[in-house]
Task: structure prediction
Amino acid sequence: GQNIDQPTEMTATEGAIVQINCTYQTSGFNGLFWYQQHAGEAPTFLSYNVLDGLEEKGRFSSFLSRSKGYSYLLLKELQMKDSASYLCALRQAGTALIFGKGTTLSVSS
Amino acid sequence: KAGVTQTPRYLIKTRGQQVTLSCSPISGHRSVSWYQQTPGQGLQFLFEYFSETQRNKGNFPGRFSGRQFSNSRSEMNVSTLELGDSALYLCATAGQAETGELFFGEGSRLTVL
Result:
């Protein structure tokens, strides 16, 4: 099996940088994903790591260290619209994802 | 192109009944997976279908079943409903992109009374 752990809640202010961590214990996976989910909406894809290292996409970056069982999502220049739940997920077979319980981020002005 | 379409969006059932939910994938997407989302457990994987075959299955009882048709549309069924089955059921589809990213529908909100 696998455990995927994320902080339940985080708060930050507009313009700041926030790092959301994700740790996992699993025997193997072929990709680590981050999704964003606004309240009442469907999750949307943010980023994907298959190899160790940093992937950057605009204001969002994601990092993976397989040896440490650790990933993080970095959000820069925070905006109010970034208030959402952020979901870390592992892909082990096919396209099926195993999700963590998510981190609710609140951005205030 | 049109996104993932799920029907019905909302439904209310009573314990012991059964329910069927439908998912129409993005055109060209052949992989369809289903997830249950609850406040306590988050998003939990139910099953995945590809080319009408169940490819992966999560840890749910046999009351939860699904199928996929030749046009890639998928249905999931929950029999003998329990109060704990109240949840948002999300369908997600994937195309051929290297990342295999999932595109989610808006979900079907099931309430069991």
Q: What stands out?
A: Chain A has no helices and eleven strands. The mean pLDDT of chain A is 94.
